[in-house]
Recover the amino acids of this structure.
């Protein structure tokens, strides 16, 4: 099987020395580009992984922690990193922060690079909770903690938000405002965003309003939110029908607010909007955003604390923490029944 290959097997197949393979894997500059590509292609094809842990056991701890997030430009992940950093500094650890850009292949390669650099552990917001990257760390015995989603694997520690509950409380508020229609805009396909949408949709259905609900998938960015408003006007008549819109992140919600303002659609008397995350600008946006709050820094702190425990004690029982979300109401959503009840398009 491929995972049983040795470095000498890779060297033989590539027609190079073991030392050359070692230099390629450690990103040494003194390797011809053609040779580097040939070796890396074989490594990828045969899923070869050097024994990172054996290498680490022969040295002292590096006091570095790898942190892999999905999107380094998203303020949610920067708040998460702040929480992590506060714990690592206290424990005299350094953080190596990287971003997968929601790419599973890139994520796995980042993990391999971090392990080659002998990090003592990894904190990761994986694209999928049972991704190749988590399996690489598990096989190599590297301590790691998953953030922003849950894992079903018995050995995995994780810290996440109860996203089903987050979607449910957003729907609960929206139902109290009594719009005629509900729109759920789900983002990047991911356990966290899927559960937010699921919690929202289920609560709407539980109140017998499923016929008044429309769902849009893969509305991911500020631009997506802004650009979808003309479609919401054409298809859902949000310009004349009272509507409640729930989005799986604050960026989309802000884009929608800009689009509604440009089309002179009143917020929140005609259309109410609820986001998710409570990123830094949500409170200060041109229409302050009602949103589901995640305890971002606490999530990072708890995950880093758990990783410190795992590093100190390999027999430590994995922690499985779900943080409770809360709703903060601002100007983009009314707090009482202000919509005309069940308006009808003539």
């Amino acid at each position: 099987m491929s995972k049983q290959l040795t470095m000498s097997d890779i060297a033989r197949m590539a027609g190079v020395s073991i030392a050359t393979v070692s230099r390629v894997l450690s990103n040494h500059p003194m390797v011809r580009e053609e040779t580097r590509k040939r070796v890396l292609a074989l490594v990828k094809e045969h899923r070869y992984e050097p024994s990172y842990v054996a290498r680490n056991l022969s040295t002292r701890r590096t006091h570095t922690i790898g942190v892999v997030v999905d999107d380094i430009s998203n303020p949610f992940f920067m708040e998460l990193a702040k929480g992590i950093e506060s714990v690592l500094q206290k424990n005299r650890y350094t953080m190596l922060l990287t971003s997968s850009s929601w790419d599973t292949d890139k994520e796995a390669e980042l993990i391999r690079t971090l392990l080659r650099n002998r990090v003592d552990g990894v904190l990761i917001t994986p694209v999928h909770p049972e991704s190749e990257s988590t399996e690489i760390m598990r096989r190599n015995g590297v301590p790691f903690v998953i953030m922003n989603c849950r894992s079903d694997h018995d050995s995995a520690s994780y810290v996440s938000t109860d996203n089903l509950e987050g979607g449910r409380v957003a729907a609960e508020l929206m139902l109290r405002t009594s719009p005629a229609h509900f729109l759920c805009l789900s983002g990047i396909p991911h356990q966290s965003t899927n559960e937010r949408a699921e919690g929202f949709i289920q609560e709407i259905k539980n109140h017998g309003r499923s016929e008044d609900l429309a769902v849009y998938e893969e509305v991911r960015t500020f631009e997506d939110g802004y650009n979808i408003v003309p479609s919401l006007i054409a298809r859902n008549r949000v310009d004349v029908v009272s509507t409640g819109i729930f989005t799986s992140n604050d960026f989309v919600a802000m884009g929608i607010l800009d689009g509604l303002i440009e089309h002179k659609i009143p917020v929140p008397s005609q259309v109410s909007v609820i986001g998710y995350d409570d990123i830094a600008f949500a409170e200060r946006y041109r229409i302050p955003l009602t949103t589901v709050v995640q305890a971002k820094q606490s999530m990072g702190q708890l995950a880093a604390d758990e990783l410190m425990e795992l590093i100190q004690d390999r027999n430590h029982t994995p922690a499985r923490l779900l943080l409770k979300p809360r709703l903060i109401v601002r100007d983009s959503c009314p707090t009482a029944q202000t919509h005309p009840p069940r308006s009808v398009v003539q």
